[in-house]
Write a structure and sequence with these properties.
The complex is a heterodimer.
Chain A: E1 5-7, E2 10-13, E3 19-24, E4 31-37, E5 44-50, E6 53-57, E7 64-68, E8 74-78, E9 87-94, E10 102-103, E11 107-111
Parallel strand pairs in A: 2-11
Antiparallel strand pairs in A: 1-3, 3-8, 4-5, 4-9, 5-6, 7-8, 9-10, 9-11
Chain B: E1 4-7, E2 10-14, E3 19-25, E4 31-37, E5 44-49, E6 55-58, E7 61-65, E8 71-76, E9 85-92, E10 100-101, E11 105-110
Parallel strand pairs in B: 2-11
Antiparallel strand pairs in B: 1-3, 3-8, 4-5, 4-9, 6-7, 7-8, 9-10, 9-11
Classes of the chains: A mainly beta, B mainly beta.
C-alpha cells in the first residue's frame, strides 16, 4: 500500500449540495495533488498544494477549493455540486525533492 | 493546456502475446511517468523517465522515452492475466509542475 488514505470511500450527494473530501498523505510528503477521474477517463489535475499553499491549478472552476494543513493532510471542497461532478476523486502525495506520486484509494462521489 | 494522447484506447490480446502502448505529447517534456490502474483501483506508479532516448526495463515491461522527449512507449512481453488494467502516462512540462495524464490504454488479456 502507498500509505495515502482518503475518506470517505463512497459518497452520495444531491445537486447543489457541498462536499468535503479528505486525504492523509504519506509521512514526509509535503506536496499533495488532487485529481478528478470520470468513468473511463484519465485523472484530470484539479490543483496542487505545497506547504499549505496552492501552487498549481487545472481547468476547474472556483467552486473547487482546497486546503492543506500543517501535518500535510488536505481537503478538497466542492460547492454547488453538479451532476457532472460525479467521479472518482484521487489525491496523490509526494516529497518536494521527487516526482514520484503515491495515490490514495480515492473517494467515489455520486451526485444525484 | 497540455495535450497527451495515448494509443490504442483499447487492446485485447491472447495471453502470451506482446502489448505496446504509445504516449504522445504536443510539447517537449521534462519527464514522463507510467502508471497502472486495475479495474476498481487507483493508479499505481510504475516508472519515471527523464533522459532523452532513455530505456528502462522492469521484468517483462520495457519503457522508452523518445529522443525529442515528446513521446514514450510501454511494451509488455508475453502478457499474463495479471497485466490486465489501464496503463496511463503522465507528463510534466518542467520539474515540480503539475502532471497531465494521458487518455489511457485499457488492456484485456484473454486466457
Amino acid at each position: 500500500e502507498t500509505g495515502v488514505t482518503q475518506s470517505p470511500t463512497h459518497l452520495i450527494k444531491t445537486r447543489g449540495q457541498q462536499v468535503t473530501l479528505r486525504c492523509s498523505s504519506q509521512s514526509g510528503h509535503n506536496t499533495v495533488s488532487w485529481y478528478q477521474q470520470a468513468l473511463g477517463q484519465g485523472p484530470q489535475f484539479i490543483f496542487q498544494y505545497y506547504r499549505e499553499e496552492e501552487n498549481g491549478r487545472g481547468n476547474f472552476p472556483p467552486r473547487f477549493s482546497g486546503l492543506q494543513f500543517p501535518n500535510y493532510s488536505s481537503e478538497l471542497n466542492v460547492n454547488a455540486l453538479e451532476l457532472d461532478d460525479s467521479a472518482l476523486y484521487l489525491c496523490a502525495s509526494r516529497k518536494e525533492s521527487t516526482d514520484t506520486q503515491y495515490f490514495g484509494p480515492g473517494t467515489r462521489l455520486t451526485v444525484l | 493546456g497540455q495535450q497527451v494522447m495515448q494509443i490504442p484506447q483499447y487492446q485485447h490480446v491472447q495471453e502470451g502475446e506482446d502489448f505496446t502502448t504509445y504516449c504522445n505529447s504536443s510539447t517537449t517534456l521534462s519527464n514522463i511517468q507510467w502508471y497502472k490502474q486495475r479495474p476498481g483501483g487507483h493508479p499505481v506508479f510504475l516508472i519515471q523517465l527523464v533522459k532523452s532516448g532513455e530505456v528502462k526495463k522492469q521484468k517483462r515491461l520495457t519503457f522508452q522515452f523518445g529522443e525529442a522527449k515528446k513521446n514514450s512507449s510501454l511494451h509488455i512481453t508475453a502478457t499474463q492475466t495479471t497485466d490486465v488494467g489501464t496503463y496511463f502516462c503522465a507528463v510534466q512540462e518542467w520539474a515540480g509542475n503539475q502532471f497531465y495524464f494521458g487518455t489511457g490504454t485499457s488492456l484485456t488479456v484473454i486466457p
